[in-house]
Design a protein that fits this description.
Blueprint (H helix, E strand, L loop, with lengths): L8 H19 L4 H24 L5 H25 L4 H25 L13 H8 L1 H21 L6 E2 L2 E2 H47 L1
Antiparallel strand pairs: 1-2
Length: 217
């Protein structure tokens, strides 16, 4: 009997993440406590589903794609809310969403195409900075956490400054601290998109060369 991958434990966790995210989106304009709780729990489950996939030997392409899309949609919808809360900075939130969606999609799509060919591509892991980003799980974890904390703190600032620390609100302080992390993560996404574009060009050139060779033979 064929396995039903849609009922695998990590994918069930993924569905729970989607439900929590949708609840969060609905209450973002009005109830910051409920919205934040659902958003944070959905984010924390992002780590749980990966462990579940390894523990139950239930890693699937569908699960990986579900995980990525939930992450991207979550950040995008939070940015949409922030653009409404801070219309003066709408362009920057739009730019952030564009970089996040376009570069991740291009990188994932190109990675799949690379697996079907044997051509030589640009490998970002050869760069020492990128190698640390890819191989050090703690660095990746704190980069992702810092990025999410930046947007979450901006969201909470719309409602309250939070408890004061040396005369400055906690959420404002978190936003200041995490701003460099959010900028660096966006720049890394741009690098992803650029390298993916170059690699996609290599695929195009080689495919066109192969077609031309067939036509001449």
């Amino acid at each position: 009997m064929a396995e039903n991958i849609f009922l695998f434990v990590p994918n069930l966790i993924g569905y729970a993440r989607i439900i929590l995210a949708l609840i969060s989106f609905y209450f973002m304009p009005t109830n910051c406590v409920l919205a934040c709780t659902c958003y944070v729990v959905s984010g924390l489950l992002d780590a749980v589903d990966g462990h579940a996939a390894r523990y139950f030997n239930q890693s699937t392409r569908f699960g990986a794609m579900l995980d990525q899309l939930t992450d991207r949609a979550g950040t995008m919808c939070l940015c949409v809310t922030l653009a409404n809360f801070y219309p003066k900075y709408m362009f920057w939130f739009q730019l952030s969403m564009t970089i996040d969606i376009v570069c991740h999609w291009l990188y994932l799509h190109t990675t799949l195409l690379q697996g079907k060919t044997s051509h030589k591509f640009i490998d970002m892991s050869g760069n020492p900075i990128m190698r640390v980003y890819y191989t050090n799980k703690m660095v990746l974890f704190w980069m992702c956490c810092g990025n999410e904390a930046f947007y979450a703190s901006l969201y909470l600032l719309h409602f309250t400054e939070g408890p004061l620390i040396d005369g400055i609100g906690l959420f404002r302080l978190i936003a200041y601290i995490c701003t460099p992390v959010a900028i660096v993560k966006s720049l890394i996404s741009v690098v992803h998109g650029f390298v993916a574009s170059v690699n996609l060009g290599i695929i195009d050139v080689n495919e066109r060369a192969a077609i031309a060779e067939k036509q001449t033979n």
